[in-house]
Amino acid sequence: MYELKIALRQVFSRKKQTFFAILAVALAVAVITVMMAMLSGFQGELIKSSTENNPHIVINPQDEKEGFIHLYRYNSALISDKEGVIAVSPKYLGQAALEHKDNAEGISLQGIEPEAEDKVMRVSKDIVEGSFLSLTHTRHGIVLGDKLAENLGVQLGDRVDAVFPGSKTTSFKVIGLVHTGTAADEVTAYARLDSVQEFFNEPGVVSTIGIRVADPYKADSISSSIERENELNAVSWIEANAEILNLLNTQKVFVNVFYILIYGIAGFGIANTLITIVAQRTREIGILKAMGASQKSIMIVFLFQSVILGAIGLVLGTILGYIATITLQSYKIAVPQEMYFGLQTLPLEVEPLNFVYAAFFAFIINIISGIYPARKAAKLDPVKAIESA
Amino acid sequence: MTEESPIIELKNLTKSYKNGMEFRALDNANLKIKKGEFVAIVGPSGSGKSTLMHLIGLLDTPSSGTLLIDRNNVTNMSDKERSEIRNKMLGFVFQYHHLLPDFTALENVMMPLLIAGKKRKEAKETAEKLLKEVGLEDRMDHKPGELSGGQNQRVAIARALSCSPAIVLGDEPTGNLDTKTGDMIYELLRQLNKEYNQTFIVVTHNDDMALKADRIIRLVDGKITVQ
């Protein structure tokens, strides 16, 4: 392959030119990999936050006005038997007030079956004091959001009174504190489902049923199967977040346009370098032809050059992109929480496939950029080429 | 018959350029060159010497007429076929050495062999032998920039001969050298011609050199006047 030999020699004899052409490709690949890391990090984080600490499917009451699900035990049992369902957690939600000494706070009281709720919502993970699962054997135990406990001035072991018009004031013992880092910490209180049902005088009904499935991406099909077979009103996390997911997909279109522009710029960089090389090497091309190099061979020589520039560029680019991503990751750039759906720092995810994509497209662009200069070189008239000074 | 058939035969070979008016750089040239001949082409500037060389060297295509090289009509061949003939049958020595600047003398001489698809080792051996023959055995690893004009021209000659071409074309191969070096180069060409029985066609301005050739072809205004 004398073509490769010539290509290598010609590329590396012009060090500055080569350096800048490689840099153009490297920067393009690096910028794109960092952007991809941001995008997939953002999407990943969003999906994680929608699926990790939230039910994958929520059963809501059929009748909006009544607001309750009847026969929840029977329905829960049926849903539990479905393939792919890991846990089913019926929940009674009610507004009430908690009092401790002179303090009173409005709360969102959640009546739950501790084990089931923990499986669906992973509450234990956020417990900072006490235990969530000890609710199981504490009939009048309560787990409070840490902010709520602070506002009430209560600590683990203190007693608080739940108050609701028309209900008998009930005393609960604080057996756990939970911290999720969201506003919910100021209002959330968990107690056993039977205690809460009794407190609100609503035995036998729940407000919602939360479901966790093995594969979050199958939530949609399981959800529709529940609707079809059990005639319940089920909403999967995908449906619930449809707007955000759509937004992300729209954003992807813009980002792709951006990628194309970046690649285009890098491609012109390569093409420009090669056109310059062809211009500088015109006489040599003529001589190679005189020595018997065919048009095809000349074309191959210059395509090789673009491949060499591109290959080095994309290797450097992926390394550069990786380092940049890791660096940005470790800086934990803060973002306004409201704007980014509750994310606190800019999430970046090192997704190996992204690097493969970025490199692959860079390579394709390189070859395309090389075609015009290579053809130009191949078509040079040998007489004119040799006589050119 | 085989003995007598010419290695190069031009039949009414014409090259014209249309630039408003038609200009015939080569006008109905008829010429036969035998194998092993050393032919000098002379004539004033712009008389069509270079055009003739380029046509015979398959670097240019004629407007009309036929060119036979080793009895093959090369006028209508594809780029691939013409490239192959250039590689295997033709060797060029130009006024300027036109070596590849990024390659050493040895690599430059190896290049036509590599283009011909020869193995590296074989190409290297041939190239070394040729460079020794032109007296550059101790300059093989130097690049053109590190060699003198005469040395570079000798490398160019070695390169022209590397594929053992039947025909060697020289377009004022000594035109860019001082008289002494030029004479030396010319003698070298003459000597190689006798040694290998290759056909040499050399364009020259130098009458002394032309007189040493087997035959002188004179061109005036694109026409062959004296054979």
UniProtKB/TrEMBL annotation, chain A:
Domain of life according to the entry: Archaea
Domain ABC3 transporter permease C-terminal: 256-382
GO cellular component terms, A-Z: plasma membrane protein complex
Membrane topology according to the record: Multi-pass membrane protein
Keywords, sorted A to Z: Cell membrane, Membrane, Transmembrane, Transmembrane helix
Residues of the MacB-like periplasmic core domain: 18-228
Any one of the GO BP annotations: lipoprotein localization to outer membrane
Subcellular location: Cell membrane
Name of the protein this chain belongs to: ABC transporter permease
Native organism: Methanosarcina spelaei
Automatic annotation (TrEMBL), chain B:
Listed GO CC annotations: plasma membrane
GO biological process: lipoprotein localization to outer membrane; protein localization to outer membrane
Annotated Pfam families: ABC_tran
Domain ABC transporter: 8-226
Gene3D superfamilies cross-referenced by the UniProt entry: P-loop containing nucleotide triphosphate hydrolases
Domain of life the protein comes from: Archaea
Keywords: ATP-binding, Cell membrane, Membrane, Nucleotide-binding, Translocase, Transport
Statement: the UniProt record of this protein carries the keyword Flavoprotein: no
InterPro entries associated with the record: AAA+_ATPase (IPR003593), ABC_transporter-like_ATP-bd (IPR003439), ABC_transpr_LolD-like (IPR015854), MacB-like_ATP-bd (IPR017911), P-loop_NTPase (IPR027417)
Translocase found in the keyword field: yes
Single Gene Ontology MF annotation: ATP binding
Family: Belongs to the ABC transporter superfamily.
This protein's name: ABC transporter ATP-binding protein
Source organism per UniProt: Methanosarcina spelaei
Lineage: Archaea, Methanobacteriati, Methanobacteriota, Stenosarchaea group, Methanomicrobia
